[in-house]
């Protein structure tokens, strides 16, 4: 399948993806073969079901959220470009010395983009706020069954209270940045490691 | 044996010393060692002058100076102004200078010198042993690569500074970054852990490199540069490998030995600390004896045995070991630095050469920086969190030279190395410069560069939650991208450790009960907290306004133990509370939430540690079911929007059971004939209805106990009529609690072929078999969620019970903790009555893993039963499953087990409930 992967992926495509996401050539081909192996329908796109077929994701509490993050709003197919674009969030932050392209928007792996990605995991309704309910949902996913809703609710309250600065009882993106900023280093950085 | 006897260690007066350690153990080693005759030993290095001067004064002087100097350093510790600016080591050196000056003035002769023998035999081991024993092993191994690399490169680059062999020699010894100095300075600066470990670990391993290089050059010098052949260089490299690897091995062997011995010290607790010291020290001496890297040996001995020994020995011994080691280490440190100061005063020992000194300083600095930059550049290709420029600066700046270099240079043979005096002088200056100047400035530098410091504060709740979420996120992405996790090897090792090492080295009781113990400990901590809590309540009503108070207030009372403690303890604590708990309420509130979270958040898959596989099973099962449920809901809601093949697809999932039933000739017990009668018509027409049928089910579904009883009867007849099948189809089809989910896989695979609308017709060709199976699993579990089939069912009572009572499991859990603590008699009866809801908070959860493990572990839950010996015959365990879970190599098997296996904890629980309530 590896050979097929490389033949199907055209050079110019690779170039574009490279430019957009910053992945190296070998990384792209490597991920492309993964992409095709996930793509059971062989139509060049991945559906949610394709993702859900990954066994490990079934036991990941946030699995479905992350799967959703791969899909642009309102769509249920993602092509390789989109796939790579999402994965690019997980590349390490780099000094933007080399790619000084003033026109280009911020690279996908910039800090704020990473944070935005994380933020979106919580913010389901895309109102740029994490409400108590949204937080509660995520918490519910992440804790065991032996915690009562009440307890969880108080944790959610506390969390929001801690981060909330303008008193609207929800976490805005700016507030989220303040909280998550230092985490970003330890969290989103290791794609390079695996892909080299 | 004559050659052996001539070896200085044997002939040294040490052997006749009263230390039992030295007299007995080394000799058998000595006599049996082939290594002794090896060229390694014949090299003049440590053997010759190492111990000879030992007889003279140093032991005495150290005894004399330690009581004197230790309080002094203690003083420095407490004069805050000073120590915020000046590292302790600088102060000690200064003090040494003064002391030395005084002594020199009075007696005209330097009485006290830092003698290499003293240094290597007593001072260095204590410090290194301390560091090794308490080194966070995980961090160390995480950074091992970095350490190794930096080590070798940094050491070797120094030798370029001069062509002469002697300068090479000098370069070798001066380039060693000294663990002692680094420790002293870095610990005070509180740089972040990574940095500290890298620099410190590097300096530890440096010993190996330095000593070997030193040896090699030493022998070169002896032979004379002109006689050195290329082969000798290779020999040098080889001996380096031997020395470092050998040292490590010796350390590990002793670690295993020590762990093994402590397994059997239950009756004689008192010797436990002694054993620890002796064995660690013995590791050092043994390595030294074979001219292997003693520091390495000791470090690895400490690291290696720490985990097992800590688990084996008693709490008191643990404390003793800890404090004794720390005390010894800091005494040794103090002595070393004072000696450095003292010996610097004695002019007769050294000769000044400005050129050499300044050159050396510059070179040291430049090469250190160069080396750091180069190797971090290489390292950053591989590292998870790249070392940035600031780290590099601190790393290169943190290259403090210290007593090791000094001791080595003093060891030089003045006849062979005529320039010894110059070297000594230069070394002293370098040591002074690095320790004083760099040590002084590193703190402001670190401040100025805003190097992330070690954080003592707890992360906020936000951080904790988000971090965990991110971890999950990352794991998911890894899975999606199909990458091997970073922790792959560590997982392997842990597996090995769990399967073999722990069994061999840990006490049975510990091995079985460590989680229990942990829990008990945490209960205690919690009790302490709640004692404070009560005091806090009296004083600060402000906390009542905090939202999480709600949760706490909602729990009526805690346990007996806690109450007991409260009543007895509160009076004592109140006084303290008045002083410091006023702002503490919030903090403490938070800590509670932290414990809570720590105990209950799911852990990312790869982070699992030793004992928690049972726990993970449970966690995985929960998540899995939850996920499947939510997926199912998504299907439900989205299916109307999707176009046809989608529908069919989701349809297929719903009908998965039917399809399974449909098929396959190799499953004779299935209703094969039905296959033809249940044609494609079904999906098309019935879809919507079915969704509706689903709907109500899902809503009330929370309790999960509901449909279970429908199950067993219907499977055969239902398929005959389509509508009937629709009515019941969710539950009965899968539900027949035939445990053979595995069998269903195959039918399902075939079933795909029989459904014409199915999209993934061709997909089946490519999908690797296990993926396919996994998918089947998820589908069948989808079904099973809609209607819990037999196998999964046992979980549910627990779930619902928990949601109802909010504390069913904790009952037994706290009971076990209590009984483990000896409060069993009291705990067992009253705990149930109390309702215990509060113990849903895992008490004091620093160790996330153990704790959850304790919660769910079957043994734990059986514990109260076992103590009262009412233990019922356990349910027949599903051994193959357990295996699959443990290995978790095959995701499919694993997932299957999630679906089919009765949660290990649930059954015993159900049983344990009975007796307890009685």
From TrEMBL, chain A:
Which Pfam family name is an example for this entry?
EF-hand_7
- Membrane-spanning parts: none
Task: Give one GO molecular function term.
Answer: calcium ion binding
Transport listed as a keyword:
yes
| Keywords, ordered alphabetically | Calcium, Cell membrane, Cytoplasm, Lipoprotein, Membrane, Metal-binding, Myristate, Nucleus, Phosphoprotein, Protein transport, Repeat, Transport
Q: Which SUPFAM superfamilies does the record match to this protein?
A: EF-hand (SSF47473)
Q: Its family?
A: Belongs to the calcineurin regulatory subunit family. CHP subfamily.
Name the chain's protein.
Calcineurin like EF-hand protein 1
Identify the coding gene. Answer: CHP1
TrEMBL record, chain B:
Output the Gene Ontology cellular-component terms: plasma membrane; recycling endosome membrane
Composition-biased stretches (Basic and acidic residues):
609-636, 656-679
- Its membrane topology: Multi-pass membrane protein
Per the record, the domain of life is Eukaryota
**Predominant cellular place of this UniProt entry's protein:** membrane
The biased composition feature labelled Pro residues covers: 872-881
In this chain, the stretch annotated as Disordered covers 598-699, 713-742, 840-918
The subcellular localization recorded is: Cell membrane; Recycling endosome membrane
The GO molecular function terms of this record are:
potassium:proton antiporter activity; sodium:proton antiporter activity
Basic residues composition bias: residue spans: 637-655
List, in alphabetical order, the GO biological process terms annotated in this UniProt record: regulation of intracellular pH; sodium ion import across plasma membrane
Compositionally biased tracts (Acidic residues)? 847-860
Instruction: Mark the transmembrane ranges.
Output: 85-105, 117-135, 167-186, 195-217, 237-262, 274-303, 323-342, 354-374, 394-414, 421-440
Tell me which Pfam families the record gives.
Na_H_Exchanger (PF00999)
Going by the UniProt record, its keywords in alphabetical order are:
Antiport, Cell membrane, Endosome, Ion transport, Membrane, Sodium, Sodium transport, Transmembrane, Transmembrane helix, Transport
Cation/H+ exchanger transmembrane domain segment(s): 77-448
Name the NCBIfam families for this protein: b_cpa1
Q: Which family does it belong to?
A: Belongs to the monovalent cation:proton antiporter 1 (CPA1) transporter (TC 2.A.36) family.
Tell me the protein's name: Sodium/hydrogen exchanger
Q: What does the organism's lineage look like at the top?
A: Eukaryota, Metazoa, Chordata, Craniata, Vertebrata
């Amino acid at each position: 399948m590896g050979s097929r992967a490389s033949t199907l992926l055209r050079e110019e495509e690779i170039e574009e993806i490279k430019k957009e996401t910053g992945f190296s050539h070998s990384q792209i081909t490597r991920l492309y073969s993964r992409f095709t192996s996930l793509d059971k329908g062989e139509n060049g796109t991945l559906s949610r079901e394709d993702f859900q077929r990954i066994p490990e994701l079934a036991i990941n509490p946030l699995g479905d959220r992350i799967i959703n993050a791969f899909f642009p709003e309102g769509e249920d197919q993602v092509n390789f470009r989109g796939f790579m674009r999402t994965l690019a969030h997980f590349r390490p932050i780099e000094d933007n010395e080399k790619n000084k392209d003033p026109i280009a928007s911020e690279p996908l792996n910039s800090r704020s983009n990473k944070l935005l990605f994380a933020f979106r995991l919580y913010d389901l309704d895309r109102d740029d706020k994490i409400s108590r309910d949204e937080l509660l949902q995520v918490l519910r996913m992440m804790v065991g069954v032996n915690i009562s809703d009440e307890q969880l609710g108080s944790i959610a309250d506390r969390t929001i209270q801690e981060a909330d600065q303008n008193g609207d009882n929800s976490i805005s993106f700016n507030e989220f940045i303040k909280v998550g900023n230092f985490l970003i280093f330890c969290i989103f950085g290791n794609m390079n490691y695996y892909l080299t | 044996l004559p050659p052996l006897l001539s070896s200085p260690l044997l002939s040294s007066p040490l052997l006749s010393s009263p230390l039992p350690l030295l007299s007995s153990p080394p000799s058998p080693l000595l006599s049996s060692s082939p290594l002794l005759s090896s060229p390694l030993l014949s090299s003049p290095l440590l053997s010759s002058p190492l111990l000879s001067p030992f007889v003279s004064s140093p032991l005495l002087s150290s005894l004399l100076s330690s009581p004197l100097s230790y309080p002094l350093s203690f003083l420095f510790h407490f004069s805050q102004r000073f120590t915020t600016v000046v590292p302790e080591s600088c102060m000690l050196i200064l003090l040494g200078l003064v002391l030395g000056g005084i002594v020199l003035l009075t007696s005209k002769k330097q009485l006290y010198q830092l003698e290499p023998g003293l240094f290597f035999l007593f001072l260095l081991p204590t410090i290194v042993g301390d560091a090794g024993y308490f080194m966070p092993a995980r961090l160390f191994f995480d950074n091992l690569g970095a350490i190794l690399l930096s080590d070798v490169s940094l050491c070797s680059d120094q030798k370029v500074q001069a062509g002469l062999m002697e300068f090479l020699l000098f370069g070798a010894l001066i380039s060693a970054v000294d663990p002692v100095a680094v420790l002293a300075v870095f610990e005070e600066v509180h740089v972040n852990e990574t940095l500290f470990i890298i620099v410190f670990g590097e300096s530890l391993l440096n010993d190996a490199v330095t000593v070997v290089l030193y040896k090699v050059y030493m022998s070169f010098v002896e032979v004379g540069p002109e006689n050195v052949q290329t082969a000798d260089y290779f020999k040098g490299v080889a001996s380096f490998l031997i020395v470092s690897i050998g040292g490590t091995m010796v350390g590990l062997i002793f670690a295993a030995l020590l762990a093994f011995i402590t397994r059997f010290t239950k009756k004689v607790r008192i010797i436990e600390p002694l054993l620890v010291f002796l064995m660690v020290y013995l590791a050092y001496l043994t390595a030294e004896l074979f001219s292997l890297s003693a520091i390495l040996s000791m470090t690895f001995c400490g690291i290696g045995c720490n985990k097992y020994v800590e688990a084996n020995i008693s709490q008191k011994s643990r404390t003793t070991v800890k404090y004794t080691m720390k005390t010894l280490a800091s005494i040794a440190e103090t002595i070393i630095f004072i000696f450095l100061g003292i010996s610097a005063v004695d002019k007769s020992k050294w000769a000044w050469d400005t050129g050499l000194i300044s050159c050396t300083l510059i070179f040291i600095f430049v090469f250190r920086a160069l080396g750091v930059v180069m190797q971090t550049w290489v390292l950053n290709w591989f590292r998870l969190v790249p070392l940035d420029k600031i780290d590099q600066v601190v790393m290169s700046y943190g290259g403090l030279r210290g007593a090791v270099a000094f001791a080595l240079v003093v060891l030089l043979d003045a006849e062979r190395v005529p320039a010894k005096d110059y070297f000594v002088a230069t070394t002293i200056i370098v040591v002074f410069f690095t320790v004083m100047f760099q040590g002084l400035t590193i703190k402001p530098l670190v401040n100025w560069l805003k190097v992330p410091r070690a954080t003592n504060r707890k992360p906020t709740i936000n951080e904790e939650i988000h971090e965990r979420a991110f971890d999950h996120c990352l794991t998911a992405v890894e899975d999606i991208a199909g990458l091997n996790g970073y922790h792959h090897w560590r997982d392997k090792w842990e597996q090995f450790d769990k399967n073999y090492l722990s069994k061999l080295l840990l006490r049975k009781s510990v091995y079985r009960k460590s989680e229990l113990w942990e829990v008990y400990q945490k209960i205690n901590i919690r009790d302490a907290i709640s004692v404070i809590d009560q005091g806090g309540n009296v004083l600060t009503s402000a906390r009542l306004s905090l939202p999480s108070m709600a949760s706490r207030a909602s729990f009526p009372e805690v346990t007996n133990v806690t109450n007991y403690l409260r009543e007895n303890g509160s009076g004592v604590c109140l006084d303290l509370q008045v002083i410091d708990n006023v702002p503490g309420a919030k903090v403490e509130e938070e800590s509670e939430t932290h414990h809570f979270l720590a105990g209950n958040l799911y852990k990312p898959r790869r982070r699992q540690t030793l004992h928690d596989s049972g726990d993970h099973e449970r966690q995985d099962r929960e998540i899995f079911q939850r996920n499947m449920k939510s997926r199912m809901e998504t299907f439900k809601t989205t299916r109307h929007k999707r176009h046809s093949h989608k529908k069919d697809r989701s349809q297929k999932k719903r009908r998965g059971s039917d399809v399974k039933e449909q098929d396959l000739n190799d499953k004779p017990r299935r209703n094969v004939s039905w296959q033809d009668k249940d044609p494609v018509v079904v999906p098309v027409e019935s879809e919507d209805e079915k969704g509706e049928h689903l709907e109500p089910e899902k809503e009330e579904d929370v309790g999960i106990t509901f449909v279970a009883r429908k199950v067993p009867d219907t499977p055969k007849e239902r398929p005959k009529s389509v509508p009937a099948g629709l009515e019941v189809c969710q539950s009965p089809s899968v539900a027949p609690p035939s445990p053979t989910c595995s069998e269903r896989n195959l039918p399902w695979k075939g079933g795909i072929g029989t459904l014409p609308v199915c999209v993934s017709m061709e997909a089946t060709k490519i999908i690797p078999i296990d993926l396919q199976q996994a998918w089947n699993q998820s589908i069948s579990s989808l079904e099973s969620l809609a209607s819990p089939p037999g196998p999964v069912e046992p979980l549910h009572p627990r779930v619902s019970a928990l949601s109802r009572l909010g504390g069913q499991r904790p009952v037994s859990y706290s009971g076990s903790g209590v009984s483990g603590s000896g409060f069993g008699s009291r705990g067992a009866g009253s705990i149930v009555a109390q309702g215990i809801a509060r113990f849903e908070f895992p008490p004091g959860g620093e160790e996330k893993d153990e704790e959850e493990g304790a919660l769910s572990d079957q043994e734990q839950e059986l514990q109260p039963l076992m103590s009262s010996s009412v233990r019922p015959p356990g349910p027949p365990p599903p051994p193959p499953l357990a295996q699959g879970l443990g290995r978790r190599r095959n995701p499919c098997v694993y997932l299957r087990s999630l679906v089919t296996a009765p949660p290990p904890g649930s059954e015993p629980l159900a049983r344990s409930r009975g007796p307890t309530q009685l």
